[in-house]
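dude i think i finally got it to work??
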Amino acid sequence: MTRLEDRQTLVREIEQAQTGGARQAKACALAGLDPRTVQRWRKNVGLTQGDRRPDAIRPTPAHALTEEERAKIVAVANEPRFADTPPARIVPALADEGVYIASESSFHRVLREHGQMKHRGRAHPPRTSRPPTTHIATQPGEVWCWDMTFLPASVQGQWFYFYMILDIYSRKIVGFEVHPNDSSDHTAQLAKRTALAERLHGTAAKPVLHGDNGATLKATTVLAMLNWLGIKPSYSRPRVSDDNPYAEALFRTAKYRPEFPAKGFADLDTARNWAMRFVCWYNHDHRHSGIRYVSPAQRHAGEDRGLLAGRHELYLRARAANPRRWSGETRDWTPVGAVTLNPEKDTVVQAAIAAKKLSGSIGEPAFPSRPGEPEAMARSEGEERSGATRSHAQRALQREHGEAGEHRTFPEASTMAHSAPAGGPGHRPRGDIQGKEAR
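look at this
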């Protein structure tokens, strides 16, 4: 249906084209019209009154419902026995009684005209899920996520519970514990010990802690602890399984490690010892694909920029030595910038990053070495933990690995990870357990 203004404009342009020597058929084809349509508009009142179909008088069809039938539909639908019954069930029930008034669609149409097409009974109309909450981390300590997974025991039906807190920016496991039962007290104490290990009491900006809707993560005890620590809780949408992807990916990596026991753990100490060894490997030895194949410990300490700059220079030298082996640019070793949890549209994410005034250049092939900068050195020095703030688990980690990383007799279960100063090549920081998600 073409509006009156559009008709007049099209006909005027066609007439101008004809005045210039164009044929009417060619001009109409260019305008997307049939020549007979233009003729009909000119012959009748199509250029003065427009399309008259909306104002046409349409007689009522002979087979339409009468007023008595429409009133009977409303009366039957409002009977007490059908008060909470939809038309799809009203019509069959009447048919069993030998009564036919109208079809289900006619019931729907009449009830809609009377404003009665609501959810009948106690049922609530379906609600759309809210958009996911987007969290953006531009440096360590801004966004954490946590979750719990089951570790099977050697006894069928018995499980151990592996709790974990992950920094999504560096993929560092900042806290973990293994317990024989699932309790909100465990999660509350894990949050407290992790906050002390990461020295949140000395920082103005506290992280956001994202988790699923599990009962142990939303308990009043946990919420009170997070409020006392100044940590803002965040939760996944109900019945949405992929709102916490970093934690789920980490657990997938954990359970597919070669040393994961196929027949379950013999006892709680065995499970805790395995968890400690896994976190040590994950934080220090694992080259994570999501952060340009550096370890989470290196990224958390700010060493990733220097390492990636060295790789970039190495690739440039390799291409200069054998240029015919390279068809294009070298591999992209640009440090990963901001990390988003449940990202929205790119414009929203970019606006949030700009508001945070992200330092450094993201997307350029050349970049400065970050560990030598005053800010990185100050942060590395600030990550030294005093003996008073270390938990029993952190001291146990030190007893196992020693000052220089040598292996010692494994102590009783210790399940707390903490930050440590960045060391040189081949040096494992004392008690540092850092993590990353799996790819």
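The CA atoms of residues 142 and 157 lie 38 Å apart.
im so relieved honestly
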